[in-house]
Amino acid sequence: MSLPIGMWGMIIGVLGIIAIASGAWLLLRARDVARLTDTPNNEVAPGRKRRPSASRTKVRIVLAINVLATIGALTIFALVASRTIGSNETQNDPYAARP
Question: Where would you find the membrane-spanning parts of this chain (predicted)?
Fold first, then answer.
């Protein structure tokens, strides 16, 4: 794919902001995340009983968004850094020789 050189950085930046925002949301609702993964054989409980602030479905959706955004940003970064994908300017640049 051939996009302008700044577009790849913008895509990585947007995915990074989404990953950071969803990670912050998960950190603020850590007790709900612990409640999601709680099983009867756990030695550590999620904490004192209180009304959950987020449903299990919402926590699962935000967790999936976080994982997908992180994997997407790292994958695109690795592909651009290895020049597998990129703009025509960087792929055909004789001064940016491959090692």
Answer: 6-28, 59-81
Sign of the CA dihedral 31, 37, 39, 44? Answer: negative
| CB 61 within 8 Å of CB 26 | no
> Phi and psi of 66, rounded to 5°?
-60, -50
Residue 19: the pLDDT is 97
pLDDT for position 79: 87
Residues with Cβ within 8 Å of 19's Cβ and at least 6 positions away in sequence, in order, are 66, 69, 70, 73
* CB burial of residue 84 (10 Å; 0-12, 13-18, 19+): exposed
pTM of the model: 0.76
